[in-house]
Amino acid sequence: YPGRALGYQQFAAGAIDAATALTVPAGTMYAIMTPAAQAIRWRDDGIDPTTAIGYPLAVGVELRYNSPSLSRLKVIAQVAGAILNVSYYGT
Fold first, then answer.
1. How far is it, in rounded angstroms, from Cα 77 to Cα 13?
2. Which is nearest to 76 in space by CA: 44, 48, 46, 47?
3. Which positions ≥6 away from 49 have C-beta within 8 Å?
4. Is 11 exposed, middle or buried (CB count within 10 Å of its CB: 0-12, 13-18, 19+)?
5. Residue 57: closest CA among 23, 74, 33, 73
6. pLDDT tens, 53-70?
7. Alpha-carbon distances, residue 23 vs 17, 52, 62 (angstroms)
8. In what order do the strands lie in the sheet with 40-43?
9. CB 50 within 8 A of CB 62
10. How far apart are CA 4 and CA 43, in angstroms?
11. Which residues of the chain have pLDDT under 50?
């Protein structure tokens, strides 16, 4: 995964208790996401994930997401209080 860092975003506890889109910097080719405190769920098909529906991502597990759908990706905490760290990379 080559590329230069384009930015970092942290969703603090409570910030993703409802479905939330990422703030993707222009030129982003991929993102690395890691949840803390609580697991999250994500979807990239334009439909909001819920606490029970969406692709699960456990605490401490890293997701390297490389897709043209990055701007459509939305996340939600499976349990209130999740923290999500996201780093963005591009050319």
1. 9
2. 48
3. 19, 41, 42, 43, 55, 74, 75, 76
4. buried
5. 33
6. 999 999 999 999 999 889
7. 16, 23, 18
8. 20-21, 74-77, 40-43, 55-57
9. no
10. 25
11. none
DSSP classification of residue 68: G
CA triple 20-14-41, angle to 5 deg: 50
Q: How far apart are the first and last CA of the chain?
A: 11
Q: Are 56 and 14 in contact (CB under 8 A)?
A: no
User: What pTM was estimated for this model as a whole?
Assistant: 0.92
- Give ∠ CA 74-77-79 in degrees, rounded to 5: 160
Closest CA to 61 of 81, 48, 42: 42
